[in-house]
Fold Leucyl/phenylalanyl-tRNA--protein transferase.
Amino acid sequence: MNSPLPQRDVPWIPPELADADGFVGVGGDLSPRTLLRAYAEGVFPWYGEDDPILWWSPDPRAIIELEGPEPYGGLHVSRRLARTLRSGKFRITINQCFGQVIRACGENREGGTWITPEMIAAYEELHRLGFAHSVESWVGDTLAGGVYGVALGGLFAAESMFYRITDGSKAALAALVRRLKERRFVLLDVQMTTPHTERLGAFNIPRRTYLQRLRYAVRLRDVCFV
């Protein structure tokens, strides 16, 4: 007979025991304590507006490598995009309008969005506490694009990005990568690859490798996003 799993005070099982889709649990809450514990263990919430809170730890896991040539590491920056970034078309800010960025990321998504009012409130609280951050790109006074995520030790878990002006999200992501490299972050998690993120340099690593890198990253104490 198999031994019972030890009692856990979180609604997910250890990521190593996830099913084939990476599902690890259901229920719980989105309090700062729960969310930070989840990120530290390689787990994140992802669910629809009519669903209970669902927790995931996919295998493989997608990252963008921070090591590599300056200033963008493993981020793929085309010659055209590099010229645009050098031109000064976009003005970059940090944490200037987190609420606008997370709401914009949830707009106009086919098939609905996981960025529900409950999720927005939870991540705005993480932002208030200094764990969730946004990078914005602007053209004049117009918000052109942005990206947001969670920083924990040397981990930055990028949650979503958006654009309203062509290359606005790419400019924000490039600025994010530069900042992470400057601040000595070691792991940029993008959860799962899509054709778009693959073109930007995202690639998959085994979950086991991700968890090993994560354990090192979250222990770093001399790393700060702001």
